[in-house]
Design a protein that fits this description.
With 310 residues, this protein is α+β, with helices and mostly antiparallel strands. The chain is built from six helices and eleven strands. Helices cover 27% and strands 22% of the residues. The strands form three sheets. Strands 1-8-3-6 form a four-stranded antiparallel β-sheet, with helices on one face.
């Protein structure tokens, strides 16, 4: 780093800042779809699939899959509603805090019901700018969910007997700037479901550094700019106490990777430290490398399904 300030001290925009494309995309996707990708293409730490998140609540699922019924066998009193509440809470906390680096705030509200219902979130905690909603389909079809009168965009759940549908749905919706927020669910009277809602705070994302803004101002990234930005990313991670391995540039030719400049590329084929995803996702990557990386990847698309880097 060229200065002695911590990268974590910079002014940070909200989750909606359009100059943080990677975390904005994470917000829009809500649940990142992760495909099976060779190690050579895993330039960034993978996000859990829905099946991976389901493992968080595996103790409450029968048969090891998303289509099994909820059970309270591991819970005091064997209360099935308690099992539903625990599974929804665990899923939402994992997705909001572990995957998207936000925070759940206040005391959540939970209800098992059927047909149309409405819940009101009041007593807004300081910093709350999102509403987290999760629902479990127990009998019948999934409800339609709205937050503040707007349909949510997120995962959904279908009929319990449908092997192709998921049993738990969830979403993270923007909250109005002030006041209470109403969460409404619409369903037929025979449709029974559990619903869990909570205030939440979006992650704080670092603004691009002055160096990165200069490198991307013309919409083109040179190899020197790509290399320089990656070195700043490494320095930022090291300064934050989450160092990454220093990797060489790699080119792709004749079905394999090389470091001699043969073929197309180059790219930095890197992974993030297992304990440093929040620093990487919300601070170092958007501050020093995210915009440069996006332009470079657009100018130099990687080959489909390459072998793992040796």
């Amino acid at each position: 780093m060229n200065d002695e300030r911590s990268p974590l001290d910079d002014e940070r925009p909200s989750w909606d800042d359009e100059r943080s494309p990677r975390l904005t995309a994470m917000r829009d996707a809500l649940v990142a779809e992760v495909v099976s990708t060779p190690a050579a293409r895993a330039r960034r730490r993978r996000r859990p699939t829905r099946a991976t998140v389901a493992a968080v609540v595996a103790a409450f699922l029968v048969g090891g899959g998303l289509t099994g019924g909820l059970t309270a066998a591991a819970l005091p009193g064997n209360d099935p509603d308690t099992a539903v509440q625990a599974s929804l809470g665990a899923t939402t906390r994992s997705m909001v805090e572990d995957v998207n680096h936000g925070r759940l705030l206040g005391t959540p509200t939970f209800r098992v019901t059927h047909g149309d219902t409405a819940l009101t979130l009041s007593s807004r905690p300081s910093g709350a700018d999102r509403v987290a909603v999760a629902w479990a389909c127990l009998d019948g079809s999934a409800p339609t969910v709205e937050v503040g009168g707007r349909p949510v965009e997120g995962t959904t759940c279908g009929r319990r007997a449908d092997p192709e549908s998921e049993q738990i749905g969830w979403a993270l919706a923007a909250a109005p700037a002030s006041g209470d927020v109403s969460v409404t669910l619409s369903a037929d009277d025979a449709d029974r479901y559990g619903v869990w809602v909570s205030w939440a705070r979006s992650p704080q994302i670092a603004r691009p550094s002055a160096q990165q803004e200069a490198e991307t101002a013309d919409g083109v990234v040179t190899l020197d700019e790509y290399r320089t930005a990656f070195n700043r990313l490494l320095a930022c991670q090291a300064q934050a106490g989450q160092p990454m391995a220093d990797v060489p540039l790699s080119w792709y030719s004749d079905g394999g990777w090389n470091g001699e400049g043969r073929g197309i590329g180059p790219w930095f084929l890197y992974t993030t430290p297992s304990d440093g995803s929040e620093v990487f996702d919300t601070q170092c990557y958007p501050r020093e490398f995210g915009a440069v990386d996006a332009i470079w990847q657009g100018e130099h698309p990687m080959p489909e399904d390459p072998p793992a880097a040796g």
